[in-house]
Write a structure and sequence with these properties.
The chain is mainly alpha-helical and 196 residues long. 82% of the residues lie in helices and 0% in strands.
């Protein structure tokens, strides 16, 4: 009985030690996570500074590695996000020289042209992106907006958005497009429009 009691006591001490160790580890992890969260919180409060810093780093990388496709794509996006649309287009153009059949880069470049008010170039690039990748629904989504809002080509927008809904009916953008399609169908009084 004495041996059992002693063994039980030692087991309880061991278990208590293990649990204490786990508790301390969890506490340290929580402190580490809190520190990371606070650092991220600081970045969230100043995303423009974060983007400016990243642009500076990437421009530096481009000096020694001008054909780095991933850096070009990120840099083009960061220029876009900071309203530097001309630089964004130039950077995407360099990226397309490396990867000329990249529909995503072509779509991003088309959006930048639209921001500059160059809608003809924008439409041309959206169509090119869709030719490259017939499932490039983001190009379809944006092409429809440019056709409807900028070009006043309602039948063209309707046709593009119907194609989008056929290809990606469960896409988050489909939720937005469905009421637009309905509005255009009502306005045009037709189900199968012909584009200009």
């Amino acid at each position: 009985m004495k041996k059992t009691s002693s063994l039980l006591g030692m087991s309880l001490v061991f278990i208590a030690g293990v649990l204490t160790g786990i508790g301390i580890s969890a506490w340290k992890l929580d402190l580490g996570a809190t520190g990371v969260h606070q650092a991220q919180k600081g970045q969230e409060n100043n995303p423009k500074e974060e983007i400016k810093g990243r642009i500076s780093e990437m421009e530096h990388i481009m000096k020694s590695d001008p054909n780095n496709l991933q850096v070009l794509i990120q840099l083009g996006g960061d220029y876009f996000d900071t309203g530097q649309y001309d630089k964004s287009i130039q950077t995407y153009d360099k990226a397309l020289k490396i990867d000329p059949k990249n529909a995503e880069i072509t779509t991003d470049m088309a959006v930048a042209y639209r921001r500059l008010g160059k809608t003809d170039e924008s439409v041309k690039l959206f169509r090119k992106a869709i030719e490259m990748d017939p499932n490039q629904t983001l190009a379809m989504f944006n092409l429809g907006i440019v056709l409807r809002d900028d070009k006043k080509d309602l039948p063209g927008a309707l046709k593009v958005w119907k194609t989008f809904l056929d290809k990606a009916p469960d896409s988050p953008h489909a939720v937005m497009i469905r009421p637009w399609v309905k509005q255009l169908e009502e306005k045009l009084g037709a189900k199968e429009p012909q584009s200009k």
